[in-house]
Design a protein that fits this description.
CATH class: Mainly Alpha
Largest sheet: none
CATH topology: Four Helix Bundle (Hemerythrin (Met), subunit A)
Helix content: 55-70%
Distance between the termini: 116 Å
Number of helices: 5
CATH architecture: Up-down Bundle
């Protein structure tokens, strides 16, 4: 076999290998894109309910959060998670969901008046932690920014910071101070 023939055979084999590898990569990318779109569609089914549940600790307007309502939110989030929504959370969104549930648990661990509202500083903690969860949900859906290498890096740094802040809030909530303000004593009605 001549050198030219050998070169032609080697070139043909390398061409076939390259074409095969490119076909596999292209197939993987196409499958991945289809999976991502299906996952996004499923998330769009489940995420609005979780988003709405966190309105219980909204920034505007602030609403008084009583112990019973916080316990109800804790259970509502759990029902959403195990009712199918939790399986669609990304790793980051799952971590922020966990932060919120841990903070609620720490707040509920304190004995206290169930008729008094959550103290302002604890409400702030809860509001910020719920906001971090909502931010993670928008990232999962890419509703605010498209992912680029720069954006992926920014998100990773943000989640590290959010985790640190959530751990500080959970630790503060677990401290001995009561989380709820005692209810104002009721005054007798002079008309009775």
């Amino acid at each position: 076999m001549s050198a030219d023939s050998k070169l032609a055979v080697i070139t043909a084999v390398l061409g076939l290998l390259t074409a095969g590898i490119l076909a596999l990569v292209n197939s993987w990318i196409s499958t991945r894109a289809g999976t991502d779109e299906n996952l996004r569609a499923r998330r769009l089914e489940y995420y609005p309910a979780l988003w709405g549940a966190t309105a219980a600790v909204s920034r505007w307007p602030r609403v008084p959060v009583l112990r019973d309502r916080l316990d109800e939110l804790h259970r509502e989030l759990r029902a959403w998670y195990f009712g199918g929504g939790g399986i669609f959370l990304s790793e980051s969104a799952r971590a922020r969901y966990g932060d919120l549930q841990e903070l609620i648990a720490a707040l509920l661990d304190h004995e206290g008046d169930s008729t008094g509202p959550l103290k302002d500083n604890r409400y702030e903690d809860l509001m910020e932690t719920a906001s971090s969860l909502r931010t993670a949900l928008t990232e999962d859906l890419d509703t605010r920014r498209r992912k680029s290498l720069w954006e992926t890096r920014r998100r990773a740094r943000w989640h590290t910071s959010a985790k640190r802040a959530a751990l500080a809030r959970i630790s503060a909530a677990a401290a001995a101070a009561p989380a709820f303000t005692p209810a104002a004593p009721s005054r007798p009605n002079p008309r009775c």
